[in-house]
Amino acid sequence: MISTHLAAWAAQDTQLLLVTLTALVTIVVLISFLSIAPFLSILIGTFVAGIGAGLPLEDIAKAFSKGAGSLLGEAGIIIALGAMLGALMAESGAADRIVNTLLRYARGSFIPWMMALVALVVGLPLFFEVGLVMMAPIIFVMARRSELPIMRVAIPALAGMTTLHALLPPHPGPLIAVSALHADLGTTMLLGFIVAIPAVIIAGPLYGNFIAPRLNLAEPDQIGKLFSAREGQSQPSFLVALVTILLPVVLMLGRTVARIWVTPKTELFEMLNFFGEPIIALTVTVLFAVVVLGWGQGSSRFEVGATLRRALPPIAGLLLTIGAGGGLKQTLLSAGISDTITKIADGTHMPLILLAWIIAVALRQATGSATVATTATAGIVAPLVAGLSATHNSLMALAIGAGSVFFCHVNDAGFWMVKEYFGLNLKQTLATWSVIQTLVSVIGLGMTLVLWGLLV
Questions:
Q1: PANTHER family attached here (predicted)?
Q2: Are residues 54 and 157 in the same domain?
Q3: What is the domain extent for residue 348?
Q4: Least confident segment among 145-149, 260-264, 382-386, 402-406
Q5: Is the pLDDT of residue 229 over 80?
Q6: What is the pLDDT of residue 91?
Q7: Angle in degrees, 0-180, between the axes of helices 185-201 and 390-403, rounded to the nearest 10
Q8: In terms of domains, do 329 and 295 share one?
Q9: Distance between CA atoms of 191 and 405, rounded to whole angstroms?
Q10: Is residue 334 located within the same domain as residue 193?
Q11: How far is CA 391 from CA 91, 192, 373, 396, in A?
Q12: What is the pLDDT of residues 320-344, one digit of tens each?
């Protein structure tokens, strides 16, 4: 049912929805059928959306620049630092050392399950983008050493990281939802783990085993070379390799601990908060790796410098594409797509938990950001959950998080990261990354509905 308030402006909002769909179709056609570079395709699609929505050309350009700059201002630096760290870990043999140790405990069909577990540990305090750049050298080396298809190794890791990003604090979306809905943090984390386990299993090892043989993918050349060990290089100890990959995890987890349990504005709080900032944590880790994996392994300063420089050219196209995705997102936001989705949600009548999930799904499709979708949805439904228990509010937060990762597509940075890192075409990216997120989203909704019924 749609309210009379909605009917008064339905024509304008219908136009905006159609324009958004046209822009997305334009991008897909340009990339898939005309083989236009993704960056240029998204730029063209952005102008299609902006012009169709009635934005002045100058405003479209400004929105695109703002969105691209905002995303690259943090994500771009994180990806660059992650590429440097990955190159140091691969060339020093640290990635091989970790893989050798993991292979002692998992071989053959058990490797995807091991990768899902590793991703859960590494990805707990990390943004998805940070988690991916940290896991990339492990994924590439593991696929190479185990002789498994690369996506059979990658998909469980991707599923683990995106599930945590959607459902569990300290990731920003879930934390904001917990705060907005006045849910209990501990309860949300406990229920989040219960919801996450089947989501990771089905979207990770099980789906990976199904889809990977059907993709027939080879290791991408440029990124593959970036994550290759130097011939004759002696490997660091497992402890040194493990400390290196877990250092940013510990630093970012320290920031979360500080915000929850440490008194604000104290020296301890400021120190943990500073070193837990993703860019700072990764910078510290890269410098640590330069010392222990570079100089400490006998490489000269010239060799280490060359490794760091070689890490950047392979990710140039990736950075441009991600920036373009941010520009498209900002243009759609400037055109008012979030307001349109909110108005539609206001006119519907359905169970609260399903309504929250659907709103988050719609906002994710429109804005391309799980965090934006979670934040906006939590604000929309917060007045409606005032009378619920803290436990039910936790389930509402989890349902919103699940909806926020439904079917990631061309307006999201993660989509392009996965595509470029693993050398996928558009169809393969949809069949892997978009389906992984959809499985996580639907399973997350199903689990929250089951728990909601059990806890009534």
A1: GNT FAMILY GLUCONATE TRANSPORTER, HIGH-AFFINITY GLUCONATE TRANSPORTER
A2: no
A3: 64-455
A4: 382-386
A5: no
A6: 83
A7: 40
A8: yes
A9: 18
A10: yes
A11: 48, 11, 22, 9
A12: 877 887 788 788 888 887 777 767 6
Q: Are residue 160 and residue 53 in the same domain, yes or no? A: no
Are 304 and 424 members of one domain?
yes
Threshold 0.85, pTM exceeds = no
Q: In the chain, how many domains are there?
A: 2
Rg over alpha carbons for the chain, rounded to the nearest Å, is: 22
Minimum mean pLDDT range among 18-27, 265-274, 292-301, 381-390: 381-390
Three-state secondary structure readout of the chain: CCCHHHHCCHHHHHHHHHHHHHHHHHHHHHHHCCCCCHHHHHHHHHHHHHHHCCCCHHHHHHHHHHHHHHHHHHHHHHHHHHHHHHHHHHHHCHHHHHHHHHHHHCCHHHHHHHHHHHHHHHHCCCCHHHHHHHHHHHHHHHHHHHCCCHHHHHHHHHHHHHHHHHHCCCCHHHHHHHHHHCCCHHHHHHHHHHHHHHHHHHHHHHHHHHHHHHHCCCCCHHHHHHCCCCCCCCCCCHHHHHHHHHHHHHHHHHHHHHHHHCCCCCHHHHHHHHHCCHHHHHHHHHHHHHHHHHHHHCCCHHHHHHHHHHCCHHHHHHHHHHHHHHHHHHHHHHHCHHHHHHHHHHCCCCCHHHHHHHHHHHHHHHHCCHHHHHHHHHHHHHHHHCCCCHHHHHHHHHHHHHHCCCCCCCCCHHHHHHHHHCCCCHHHHHHHHHHHHHHHHHHHHHHHHHHHHHHC
**∠ at Cα 174 (419, 202), nearest 5°?**
50
Confidence grade of residue 1 (pLDDT, cut at 50, 70, 90): very low
- Rounded to the nearest integer, the mean pLDDT of the chain is 85
Q: What would the two tokens of residue 35 be?
A: 């083989």
Tokens 């934040």 correspond to: 375
Which residue, among 188, 178, 174, 183, has the nearest Cα to 389 in the 3D structure? 183
Contacts of 387 (CB under 8 A, 6+ apart): none
